[in-house]
# Entry
Amino acid sequence: MRDQARVVVIGGGIAGCSALYHLTQEGWTDVMLIERDELTSGTTWHSAAQVTNFGMTQTMVGLKSHSIALYKELRDDPEYPVGYNHGDGGIRLANTEAQMDGYRHFASMARGMGVEFEVIDAAECARRHPLISTDNLLGGLWDPTDGHIDPAQLCQALARRARLAGAEVNRHTPVTGLTQHPDSTWTVHTEKGDVRAEIVVNAGGYRCNEIGAMMGVSHPVASMEHQYFLTEDIPAIAEAGHRMPLLRCPISDYYCRQEKGGLLLGFYEQGCRTWGMDGIDPKFTNDLCPDDLDRVTDVLEGAFARMPALMETGIRSIVNGPITYTIDGAPLVGPIPGKRNAFCIIGLRAGLGEGGGHGWLLAQQIVHGEAQYDTWVIDPRRFTGHATVELTALKAIEDYQNEFRFHFPHEHRPAGRPMKTTPLTPLLAAEGAEFGTVNGWERVDYIKPTPDFSETLGFRFNEVHDLVAQEVAAVATSVGLTEVSGFNRFELTGKDVHGFLDRMLCGRVTKKPGRVGLGYLLNHHGMLKTEATIANIPASDRGPDRVWYGSAAASEYHDMDWLTAHLRPAEDVTIRSLTNAQTILVLAGPRARDVLSAAARGDWSREAFPWLSLREAHIGIAPATVLGVSFSGELAYEIHVPNESLHAAYLALRKAGEAHGLRLFGARAVDSMRLEKGFLHWKADLLTEFDPFETGLDRFVKLDKGDFIGKPALLERVENGPRRKLVTLAVETSEAPAHGGASLVADGKIVGTVTSGDWGHRTGLNLAYAFVAPEVAQEGTEMTVDILGEPVPARVIPASPYDPGFDRMRA
Ligand SMILES: Cc1cc2nc3c(=O)[nH]c(=O)nc-3n(C[C@H](O)[C@H](O)[C@H](O)COP(=O)(O)OP(=O)(O)OC[C@H]3O[C@@H](n4cnc5c(N)ncnc54)[C@H](O)[C@@H]3O)c2cc1C
# Structure
């Protein structure tokens, strides 16, 4: 074993082997994999190893397409062919119209990635899968590429190719410790000696937290026991004359594929079990958990009803093994928060299907700093301090129990809630608030008309539509109040703060004390990294001159890593997170100034406190920092209050608002209003796949200022012209919004993808943002958007259809 490598990957399952191979593909060959036992001796060896192209975001579909293309290439390699049954086809079943709508939407989204799924009815499902009955079945989603692969051969093939490219693979070498040096490099301690590495990658599967502990981190990953069995041969399969397609069933939570002349059936039972929560026996390797088919009888009954042939077939063998889950079901692939030169590729629950793609995107991140797709859906930093293993276990159980029941828009499942609350949460609940969660924070979605009101979840407009309309009307005509919990906020102090921010931001953001500005941060490729509100707070009895950097609720770890990574040792800048210490109350509407004036001493007139001003004040008796900014397009104030004073500030505003008909509103109303103003959401519309000009943020970029991160790359990009442009569309239907991911078509060709969509209640327009080809980006251009399987006419309209002069928010 060498004593040095640029990258050491710890773990030789599909995650580690794929990461190692793809690092060599990206040109880094001084790389090493260290495995405690044999390759694939964790979960990988006993995987059912199904490989589907299905995903719920374009990034997931794209990375699975990569897996499939790679696996086909490995299958066809004459020197080491891998067993891969590609193209058996697969059906995701459905027995509700809402599920069918979901499939229609996912098919539209996948089409934009060059992947064709088909939504089929129950009779067609049965025609393609002759063993199934159509009882309690509406139809399904057909994935023609579905299949399964030999997991051990796959890993051996990847390791073999990596070795041929120069990588080293060390088996039977447990990693026992990790030491990080002041220059951020590592010593990897193993039972066979030390290895010095620039970068380490945790690919430890269900042992990822043993490796995490070696570097002082706890990953939000928990393991579940998961079982499948293999049947004896089934005569009807031989009689069918073709291989059986795969099945995935959200009605009874099982999957099924052909294995030789019989079937392999895997279960997601309600009485499921976590595994290894209190430590894992070091001798557990190449091993299984004791099988327990009694636990899965609930699910088994559903499978028998769907495939009666199963009842006449014997069981050949049972497999029960640990499988890893995260808080939201997607894995953690990317930089480890709070650490330098440390990455992970863990929490994979469909690692065989996805592993090829995850290793590819991870290697791109390590080598180039960013991957070709926006990887936020798998970014380890998308969870922050609340993401404990305890919470993960609760969410893992919930996710396991709902394995094939995808989340509907606006669905916030109950496990592990409430996790993060403010002092107002119980008060708002008493006022009828329905909460959603944002990065663990409870946040008001809308106000329910009656305590027993419940939303019919689905992809079409429903009964909440009218409630949101009423909230928007109150904000537009009078005044509304809402709480924005968990908004990310850093306090920057020191004499070099403005110089530092100048280097980080691509525009010229105000440095004037008492003023507020909006800025964008790019990565080294000139693409959009993040968005920040910069508030310059003058020295006062509350502290010295300081800057508040505010950004999206889930961006705390992401932005902190980005800022601190670019801080120069000699720079006098201290960054402190206030995210958990302060909460925002938003007062919005034409009467907002009247309410503020009644609740807080001082002159709040337009002249004394114009738009984009900032002032420290008291709301009643509560200390607060008031910013004159608006995300609704109405006159609005963001009132930042320390959590211990939040209740007091809220009561003062409610009291002052009584005379003006103040009513509460929620995030759904905010989302509708921001779409009418051309305001963008981080990671919905602001993506690392596009530069600020493509995103329509020209006014926030100043190419004539000094150096800033991403400038050289951006200048190059400008030379080449835009590949896509963000536009606002008016969509001609009142049935459903255009959900993020929906495909746009012009002249029979896919010309773009929707990022966000919702009804604009003040304009009466069904609105969507989309990245489209430049030739269809001009105002007035017509196209169609595929909404739930229907081609709906859509037209490019101006970016701010409501109050285009921005007069109302400046009033
Ligand atoms: C029953 C079952 C069925 C499944 N079916 C499917 C399916 O159909 N399709 C699909 O896509 N996925 C499926 N999965 C999930 C899939 O198998 C996993 O997502 C995948 O195998 C995880 O791979 P991994 O590399 O992350 O982890 P592992 O395979 O567990 O690899 C981790 C490796 O790290 C090594 N390691 C740990 N600690 C150390 C250390 N200190 N030093 C050195 N090495 C260390 C381990 O020995 C191990 O080899 C299934 C899982 C189960 C349990």
Observations:
- The chain has 19 helices and 39 strands.
- The first helix runs from residue 14 to 25.
- The chain has a mean pLDDT of 97.
- The radius of gyration is 27 Å.
